[in-house]
Design goal:
This protein is α/β, with parallel strands linked by helices. The chain has 7 helices and 11 strands.
């Protein structure tokens, strides 16, 4: 079965080669680039499998993924981010897949501060996964950020992992959290969602408590604490920015 891969890029010169190397089994790779200003595209132009489309993100990751889906020529499409790679075991599993379902959940393991995180914020995607391998016309991506593929078709779950290498430095983590919280706050505002001071104060605290204690994030050591803290800070920023949008317009 022929497979197209779709990869979104924006200044990913440090990640893109690792990502593309793991996609060597795919028959086609569609790069949707948000006008990178680094050497991302220079590192991919010589690959004959790759088709490059430059398109502004406009704070809508789902639209960017759906665009990539529309440009894929093959009936099966694999979505992977530039800071991810298909593990060798998952590659073999996909190559031996009988493609009986319309979409497949792929489990993901996150590496942060040079260690694998197993608990906390990432526990769910590590155990359940995300829909990333889909048949064309089986559904579509929705959500401006933290987007999800929605389908009414039959799905299944694969056994092996995507490897994810997010936020290599704390500085980059803070930049990402600030960027993604802007998009999410704007999205909630456009949906007429309201917030208040109590949510701004208590929701981040409750999220940290849930992920760090109930989801056992403390078992991941200092990296687990930092990840739980930063993601609760993301929740704080989303609600604080939403409050500003609601009360200034």
């Amino acid at each position: 079965m022929k497979i197209s891969a779709v990869v979104l890029t924006k200044n990913e010169e440090g990640n893109i080669e690792r990502c593309l190397k793991s996609l060597d089994f795919c028959d086609e790779i569609v790069i949707v680039d948000d006008y990178s200003s680094d050497k991302t595209l220079d590192k991919v132009r010589n690959n004959q499998k790759i088709k490059i489309f430059q398109r502004q993100l406009n704070n809508d990751f789902a639209s960017q993924r759906n665009f990539g889906l529309s440009k894929a020529n093959n009936n099966w499409v694999l979505f992977i981010d530039a800071d991810e790679e298909i593990s060798p075991k998952l590659k073999l599993e996909i190559k031996n897949l009988n493609f009986e379902r319309e979409a497949y959940y792929l489990k993901r393991r996150d590496y942060f501060w040079n260690q694998e995180l197993k608990y906390g914020e990432v526990k769910k995607v590590r155990q359940i996964g995300l829909i990333r391998l889909v048949r064309k016309n089986s559904g579509k991506w929705m959500g401006n950020v933290h987007e999800v593929f929605y389908t009414a078709k039959n799905t299944s779950r694969m056994n092996n992992f995507i490897n994810h290498y997010p936020h290599p430095t704390l500085k980059e983590f803070i930049i990402d959290v600030n960027c993604y919280s802007n998009i999410r706050a704007e999205e909630l505002y456009n949906q007429d969602t309201k917030t208040n001071v109590l949510q701004i104060i208590f929701f981040p605290f409750l999220k940290f408590t849930y992920n760090y204690f109930f989801n056992l994030g403390f078992l991941d050591g200092p990296a687990g604490f930092t990840y739980a803290f930063m993601m609760s800070f993301h929740s704080f920023l989303v609600r604080a920015k939403l409050y500003q949008l609601t009360n200034k317009r």
